[in-house]
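Hi there,

I know you've been waiting on this one. I reran it after we fixed the sequence typo, so this is the corrected version. Both the input and the resulting structure follow.
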Amino acid sequence: MLTFMKLCCLVIMEAFAAVIFLEGILQWKQKEPVRFWSEEQAAEENAVKNVEIYNRIHGSLWMILGGVSMISLIVNYLTGAAHTGFTVLCGIVVMFVIHQITGKILRRA
């Protein structure tokens, strides 16, 4: 019974990780500047010199988080380890740091 519950949990969490990954793909393909977090205002098109690169950076961040989460969940299920939350938290922190660094670079360009 415990194995079935762990498998159900894996499927549900993989679905959420896939949604995060798909968000990255959608941001990658957008033609106008995208938002990073839900409360952040989208950059105006005239404030961003290269919208395609701007959107690809943001999309890449979400794809990295989704991909790392999916792989981590599978490894955790196979090994029986329970450090998924820590892995996802580290991924979010890395996303935030990369966002801050790339934001400064894009503003200078």
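Quick highlight: The mean pLDDT is 77.

Best,
R. S.
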